[in-house]
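Bumping my old thread because nobody answered last time. Still need a sequence for this structure:
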C-alpha cells in the first residue's frame, strides 16, 4: 500500500506537469510505471494473471464510463460510420498489417513472425484504436471537432476494442491449437469459415445481451427509487458487469455487451441524478486508467526493447501511414459528404494505448510462442503512437480546420444547478463595468440574467441589488427564463 500510494502520487503530479506540454495522461502513467519497474528503480512485479485480471477490470470500467457519457442524439447521425470503422476497419487493419508483418517484418521478429497466423495475431493485438487514450485526449483537452467527428471517434474507439479482443482470442486459440492455414486450401478454407462463424456469433451475442440488459436496466432504474447517487452508481456498475459476465458465459463478447448496455443506461430518461452518477464514474475511470497503465508499465522491461526496435518501428509506421488510412477510407467509401480532411484526421486517430498492451499480455498469460517479443513490440508501438499521434491531435485538427474554439470553462464555485434552471456563466468585474454606478443594480442586466454568487478574494457573498461591486469581483451568472 505504501509503494502504491507513492506511485499514484508521483503519477498524478507528473500528469499535472505533462498536461502543460500536451503530453497524454496515458503516456505519463506508462512512463512512471516503467521508471519504477525492474529496469528502473527496481520495483519487482511479475504476477501476470493478476495484472491481466486487473487490466481487464479497468478496461470494463473505462468502457462503461464511455458508454454512459455517449449522447445518442449526437452519435445517431454517425452510427453507421462508427460501426463500420469498428468492424470492417479493424478487419482491414488486421489483414493489411498481418500481410506486412508476414512478408516484410516477420523475419526480424523471430520464428513466430514467419507464420501467417503469428503475423495476424500480432496485427490483431495492435488493431484497435484505444478507447482509454481517445476518451482521455478528446475530453481532457476539450477538443471540439467539426463534421461530428468527436462522437464518431468515441463510438469507434469504444466498440473496436471488443472487436480486436475477439480476433485476438480466436487467433490465440488457433496458434496454440496448431492449426496451420498453409496446410492446403481445404484446411485453410475450413479454418477461415470457422473463424468468421465464431466472430459473427460473439458479436451477435454481445449485441443481443447488451440490448436486453440495457432494457432491463432502464426498467429497474425507473422503478427503484434510490435517493443516494452513490448507490445508483453502484447499481449501474453491477448491471453493466452482469451484462459482461452473462455474455461471456454464453460465448459472446462481454465487453461489447457492457458497452451497449452502458449507452442505453446513459441515455435513459429514467436515469436518476445523472450528473452525480457521471461524476462518480469519471472518478473511478481515472483511477482504473491510472492503476492499469502503471501496472503495465511495471511489467515492461525497457532494456529488452532495443532488440525489437527496428521491427516495431517498421510495423508502427506502416500502421499509421498505410493500414489505418486504408481502413478508414475503405470503410467510409460510401460517405461522400464526409470531407477528405475529416477522413485524414480520422486516419490519424489510430492511437494505441492500454488496450493493445492488455491484448499482448493476454498472449503472454496463454503462453503463445514468442509472446514476450509481441509484448515488447506492442510497448514500443504504443510509445511511438502516443508521442506522435497522441501529442499532435489538437495541432492536426487545427491544421485541417476541423477544431472549434470552445468557450472557456465556467467557474461555478462548486455549485451544481439543474440544467433546467438555465446556463451558468462567470464574469470578472472590470473598472469600465462600474462607470454607470458601483452597485449590482447599476449594471442594468438584461431580463432573464441573474447574479447568484459573488466571490471577492477569499470571501463569498450572496448578492442583492444594493451590493457595491469592486474591480476583480468574480460573478457567477445564471441565464434563464424568469416569471417576473
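Sorry it took so long. Here it is:
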Amino acid at each position: 500500500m505504501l509503494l502504491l500510494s507513492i506511485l499514484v502520487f508521483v503519477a498524478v503530479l507528473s500528469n499535472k506537469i505533462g498536461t502543460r506540454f500536451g503530453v497524454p495522461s496515458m503516456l505519463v502513467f506508462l512512463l512512471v510505471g516503467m521508471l519504477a519497474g525492474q529496469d528502473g528503480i527496481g520495483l519487482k512485479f511479475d504476477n501476470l494473471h493478476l495484472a491481466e485480471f486487473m487490466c481487464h477490470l479497468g478496461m470494463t470500467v473505462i468502457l462503461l464510463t464511455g458508454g454512459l457519457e455517449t449522447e445518442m442524439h449526437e452519435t445517431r447521425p454517425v452510427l453507421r460510420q462508427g460501426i463500420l470503422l469498428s468492424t470492417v476497419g479493424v478487419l482491414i487493419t488486421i489483414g493489411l498489417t498481418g500481410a506486412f508483418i508476414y512478408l516484410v517484418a516477420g523475419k526480424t521478429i523471430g520464428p513466430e513472425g514467419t507464420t501467417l497466423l503469428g503475423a495476424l495475431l500480432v496485427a490483431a493485438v495492435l488493431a484497435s484504436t484505444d478507447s482509454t487514450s481517445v476518451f482521455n485526449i478528446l475530453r481532457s483537452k476539450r477538443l471540439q471537432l467539426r463534421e461530428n467527428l468527436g462522437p464518431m471517434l468515441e463510438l469507434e474507439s469504444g466498440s473496436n476494442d471488443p472487436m480486436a479482443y475477439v480476433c485476438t482470442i480466436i487467433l490465440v486459440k488457433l496458434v496454440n491449437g496448431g492449426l496451420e492455414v498453409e496446410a492446403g486450401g481445404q484446411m485453410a478454407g475450413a479454418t477461415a469459415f470457422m473463424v468468421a462463424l465464431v466472430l459473427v456469433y460473439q458479436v451477435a451475442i454481445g449485441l443481443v445481451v447488451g440490448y436486453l440488459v440495457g432494457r432491463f436496466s432502464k426498467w429497474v432504474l425507473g422503478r427503484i427509487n434510490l435517493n443516494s447517487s452513490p448507490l445508483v452508481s453502484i447499481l449501474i456498475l453491477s448491471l453493466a458487469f452482469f451484462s459482461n459476465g452473462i455474455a461471456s458465459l454464453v460465448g459472446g463478447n462481454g465487453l461489447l455487451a457492457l458497452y451497449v448496455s452502458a449507452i442505453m443506461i446513459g441515455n435513459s430518461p429514467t436515469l436518476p441524478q445523472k450528473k452525480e452518477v457521471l461524476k462518480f464514474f469519471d472518478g473511478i475511470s481515472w483511477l482504473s486508467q491510472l492503476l492499469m497503465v502503471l501496472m503495465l508499465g511495471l511489467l515492461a522491461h525497457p532494456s529488452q526493447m532495443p532488440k525489437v526496435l527496428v521491427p516495431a518501428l517498421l510495423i508502427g509506421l506502416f500502421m499509421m501511414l498505410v493500414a489505418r488510412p486504408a481502413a478508414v477510407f475503405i470503410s467510409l467509401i460510401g460517405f461522400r459528404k464526409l470531407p477528405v480532411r475529416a477522413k485524414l484526421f480520422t486516419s490519424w486517430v489510430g492511437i494505441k494505448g492500454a488496450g493493445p498492451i492488455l491484448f499482448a499480455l493476454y498472449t503472454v498469460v496463454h503462453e503463445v510462442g514468442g509472446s514476450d517479443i509481441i509484448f515488447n513490440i506492442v510497448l514500443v508501438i504504443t510509445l511511438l503512437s502516443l508521442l506522435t499521434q497522441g501529442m499532435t491531435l489538437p495541432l492536426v485538427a487545427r491544421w485541417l480546420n476541423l477544431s472549434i474554439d470552445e468557450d472557456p470553462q465556467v467557474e461555478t464555485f462548486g455549485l451544481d444547478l439543474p440544467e433546467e434552471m438555465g446556463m451558468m456563466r462567470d464574469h470578472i468585474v472590470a473598472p469600465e463595468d462600474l462607470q454607470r454606478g458601483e452597485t449590482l443594480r447599476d449594471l442594468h442586466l438584461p431580463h432573464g440574467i441573474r447574479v447568484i454568487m459573488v466571490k471577492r478574494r477569499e470571501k463569498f457573498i450572496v448578492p442583492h441589488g444594493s451590493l457595491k461591486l469592486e474591480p476583480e469581483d468574480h460573478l457567477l451568472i445564471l441565464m434563464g427564463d424568469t416569471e417576473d
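The longest strand covers residues 449-456. Let me know if any region looks off to you.
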